[in-house]
Amino acid sequence: MSWSEILTTTSALMQGLGVVLVLFFVVLAASMPLGFLLTLCTRSRFKPLSWLVNAYIYVMRGTPLMLQLFFIYFGLPLLGEPFRTLFFDALTCALVGFTLNYAAYFAEIFRGGLLSIDVGQYEACKVLGLNRWQTTTRVILPQMVRVALPSITNESITLIKDTALVFSIAIPEILHYAKVAVSRTGSIVPYAIAFVIYLALNTVLQIFFNWLEKRLAY
Amino acid sequence: MEALMHVEGLCKRFGSLEVLSDVSFTVDRGDVIAMIGPSGAGKSTILRCLIDLEKADGGTIEVEGEALVKDGVYAPPQQARQITSKMGMVFQSFNLFPHLNVRRNLTMPLMMVKKVSQQEADQRAQELLGKVGLADKMEAMPSTLSGGQKQRVAIARALMLNPDILLFDEPTSALDPQLTAEVLGVMRQLAADHVTMLVVTHEMSFAREVATKVLFICDGGIAEAAPPQELFHHPRDPRVAAFLGAAGKKD
Q1: Which is it for strands B17-28 and B3-14: parallel, antiparallel or unpaired?
Q2: Residue of higher predicted confidence among A156 and A170
Q3: Interface test with B, best of A116, A128, A214 (most B CBs within 10 A)
Q4: Is pLDDT of A69 > 80?
Q5: ipTM value for the complex
Q6: Are residues A127 and B53, on separate chains, in Cβ contact within 8 Å?
Q7: How far apart are CA A107 and CA A59, in angstroms?
Q8: How many Cβ pairs within 8 Å bridge chains A and B?
Q9: How far apart, in whole angstroms, are the C-alpha atoms of residue B13 and residue A20?
């Protein structure tokens, strides 16, 4: 392949970048708060809620994400309305499936983060008169995020790579365009370019999280 | 003398283990009460019941005439919070907020609870840090402080909310003798300012020299309550004499 062909192929692959970025940012923004909510539910004193959420986490973590995507995109519409309309669009299905799946992982990550916080922190909050909301947002969450950050980094890197799974429900992303280019040119280079693009994305991500970790250190 | 706190028949069990049985005492304004006794006797549990970190199984705790718990029945949460807000607490392990600097450790609770402005809270923080001898540590992170400095910040933080009674749960037990001295120095100063204090401690010299009243806690109850001169020099309960004898040898 010539340099100009490499350039053309790269820009062809870049057509898939938008989908990757939309998936990444929307899923991260939605699954982290949802995951924290799940964590709080598992700690609820209302036992049925905590059982239900634990069962949810168990299922979402214990089954393949691709199966879950198939279930939502190909399966649910078979049940008729309103699912047929709701899950008609593949990207919607991907966003929903990824968010539900990643929320389960984040719930476990946050649970670990909460376990690391000394009971004395809660007691100090109580004797200082902070209510539950103030205790959670001002004292517990910031410390939990700091502890959970390496795992959050890990999960984010996995998310970038997992976006390639939407290939299976016919959403054109980087992998799709790479495959098309390979069929057209008969060259291995488009795959190599795909490698580089994913790596580049994750490099930016790691630099960002390293910076964040330093910033949040105490 | 004005009674600030009245405790009557306080009981506490952990499972089948009876930790406190029938503890009664009164705290007057300006009192510095030292609670001494062997480990595991229930000293800390008493303090933790007073500020509602542990639930008593029976008895009455009244603070300034309002009952946190009366004959084992607790006030509703809102009211309980209002009653415990009259007390501040200093912990053995400091429990500073590690992600906030000293200034925010002091000002955040005050601003959350009493809705004062940052400026006003800063001013009060500066004043109280000066009082505990750490005026220059306003912007320091807790992780950069020594244990003694951390505990002095914790004392300043407890004072921020202007409590009527300050509870100390073994404030110097995690500190070496030199750092202990610097924390006890601050507590002596508070006593001189007539701050009402309840102090669970193993520092006999503090109990002897600073306390107005000493409670000797043993086997889940108050074995002897007396002014320090009396309790230290003429103990009536043989368990007190035995404990002080052992403590004296250790010194």
Answers
A1: antiparallel
A2: A156
A3: A128
A4: yes
A5: 0.92
A6: yes
A7: 13
A8: 55
A9: 58
Q: How many angstroms separate the CA of residue B94 from the nearest CA in chain A?
A: 8
pTM: 0.85
> pLDDT per residue over B199-221, tens digit each?
999 999 999 999 999 999 998 89
Residue B3 has pLDDT above 70, yes or no: yes
Residue contact A127–B141, C-beta within 8 A: no
Residue B92 structure tokens: 């053995």
Structure tokens belonging to residue B50: 């007073």
Q: Which of B53, B93, B113 sits opposite A128 (nearest CB)?
A: B113
A59 in contact with B at a CB cutoff of 8 Å?
A: no
Tell me what pLDDT residue A150 has: 94
The residue type found at B26 is T
For residue B37, give the DSSP letter. Answer: -
β-bridge partners, A47 = none
Q: What is the pLDDT of residue A217?
A: 84
Q: Spell out the alpha helix ranges (H) of B51-142.
A: 77-84, 102-114, 118-131
Backbone angles phi, psi at B221, to 5 degrees: -150, 175
Total length of chain A: 218
Is residue A1 scored above 80 in pLDDT?
no
The set of residues, in sequence order, having a beta carbon less than 8 Å from that of B47 and lying 6+ positions away, is: B35, B89, B167, B169, B198, B200
Note whether B66 and B6 are within 8 A (CB).
no
- CB–CB of A127 and B97 under 8 A? no
DSSP symbol at B54: S
Q: Which of B206, B210, B233, B182 is nearest to B30 (CA)?
A: B210
Of the candidates B94, B95, B92, B123, the residue with the CA atom closest to the CA atom of residue B107: B123
The sign of the torsion formed by the CA atoms of A84, A85, A90, A95 equals negative
- Which pLDDT value is given to residue A161? 94
Mean predicted confidence (pLDDT) in B78-95: 95
CA–CA separation, B198 and B190 (whole Å): 12
